[in-house]
Amino acid sequence: MMDWRDTVVAAETSLRDAIVRIDNCATQLALVLDAQQKLVGTLSDGDVRRAVLRDVSLDTPVAQVMNRCPITARASSSQCEQLALMRRNVIHHLPLLDEQQHVVGLSTLDALTGIIERPNWVVLMAGGLGERLRPLTESCPKPMLTIAGKPILECILEKFVEQGFRNFFLSVNYLANVVRDHFGDGSRWGVRIQYLEENKRLGTAGALSLLTTRPEHPILVMNGDLLTQARFDGLLQFHSEHDAAATMTVREYDFQVPYGVVRMNGSKIACIDEKPVHNFYVNAGIYAISPSALDRIPSDTFYDMPTLFEELIAAEETTAAFPLREYWLDIGRMEEFERAQHEWPSHTGNIA
Question: Which of 118, 137, 170, 277 has fewest C-beta within 10 Å?
């Protein structure tokens, strides 16, 4: 059972240490208290990710990043009142204060409602050819290659199930029968699985045109060759907070130039950067897409996710980037496949 005291940090705590606290207590929130145990702010998982996107140093004090005006409730309030307040304000955590404004508890949406069965659909892309993993993929689609004895796609599915998702669509093309035979209708996992049959390759967004009904809520879309410990509920919360048409998860990627880079002013050498490192954010292959954005996807046409985002940006619709801090691995090449065999069990606790 969670002890709210495990979430407490001081205003001068570094962002780096606060992230460790947030991850260890699994609440996606830290309470920032002063010496008198009074609340001075909160630091959410979303606050952290927004700070990362702004290139805020992890040595920065929490006070510079935290929410200074969080919504709170009296400790004497009923659970029904707390639940109503969280739902009304679309929040997942509610600090509880006594009459002297001291923090005496933390109410959470999950604790009050149990594991929420989320209405959001999940679409997993499982139709790729996996050419870079041949000969392994000559008789097995890439998402069905096994990591520590379990298909990649099953590892992905189970992560979603753990977080309350129950409605899945698997987009299939290459060796589709292998996927269908393994997953069936999903009843083995207590979920509903339907299939989007690509008669030709439609791309990571084009396959969404095969959905026969328009979803009522944002959907999650994920490539079927990824392993991650990402919090998908956090992605949806972030997507909602930014009122985005589409949100893309991103990962920080470092590239070191293996040579000394010569910077010139005309024919004169201005300086030499010896093997400089460049930092980028790259597409991590997991998306939250609002129903309105799906209307832009053409039918029966190859159409990738970057194209959808480019069109949304051109139309001046809101798109958001959700930086992943959690474990993430794209199994696109043999070296990543081999790396996953020993890394993934250690991240899931299933070590032989």
Answer: 277
Active site residues: 275
The CATH fold of domain 4-113: CBS-domain (3.10.580)
Give me the CATH code for the 118-242+282-306+321-348 domain, please: 3.90.550.10
Are the C-beta atoms of 56 and 15 separated by less than 8 Å? yes
Residues 309-342: tens digit of each pLDDT:
999 999 999 999 999 988 898 887 888 888 888 8
Contact 333, 133 (CB under 8 A): yes
- Amino acid in position 149: G
Q: Hunting for tokens 């069109």 — which residue is that?
A: 311
Residues 6+ apart with CB under 8 A from 153: 124, 126, 143, 144, 170, 179, 182, 183, 224
Q: Where in the chain is the domain with CATH 3.90.550.10?
A: 118-242+282-306+321-348
Contact predicate 40/24, CB 8 Å = no
